[in-house]
Amino acid sequence: MSSFAEQLRLSRLHSGLTLAEVGASCGLSGGYVANMEHGRKGPPSVDKVASMARAMGAKPALLVMLALHERHTEEELSVIGACFQARLGDK
């Protein structure tokens, strides 16, 4: 099981929400969320991951980071990180 899957499950259990409730927060079915928790499906888009995290009362950053790590190579993650740093430097 991936770190994303484990954290998703822990966050959901801690929140007390059902699979269906977490899925509904971002337009996914409860079955899809269950498949993610068991590592049978990968993470959805970053927007959906962030929506799930907020619905569970968790900070989106951790789940988003784990989702990105699962979906991208180390090289791609370096580029993504550089883009975020540049963007934060603009503020």
List keywords for this structure.
mainly alpha, 6 helices
Give a quick rundown of the structure.
By secondary structure, the protein is mainly alpha-helical. The chain has helices spanning 3-15, 19-24, 30-37, 46-55, 60-71, 74-89.
Structural account:
The radius of gyration is 14 Å and the shape is globular. Helix content is 71%, strand content 0%. The model has no long low-confidence stretch (mean pLDDT 89). The protein has a single domain (3-89), classed as 434 Repressor (Amino-terminal Domain) (Orthogonal Bundle). The chain contains six helices and no strands. The protein is mostly helical and 91 residues long.
Alpha-beta content class: mainly alpha
Quickly name the level 1 CATH class: Mainly Alpha
Count of structural domains: 1
Could you tell me the radius of gyration in angstroms? 14 Å
Topology-level CATH name: 434 Repressor (Amino-terminal Domain)
Question: From the coordinates shown, what is the CATH architecture?
Answer: Orthogonal Bundle
CATH evolutionary superfamily = lambda repressor-like DNA-binding domains
Q: Give the overall average pLDDT.
A: 89
The fraction of residues assigned to DSSP E strands is: under 5%
- State the helical fraction: over 70%
User: Secondary-structure element sequence?
Assistant: HHHHHH
Largest sheet: none
Would you count the extended β strands for me? 0
Distance between the termini: 38 Å
Cα shape:
globular
DSSP summary: helix tally = 6
Low-confidence stretches: none
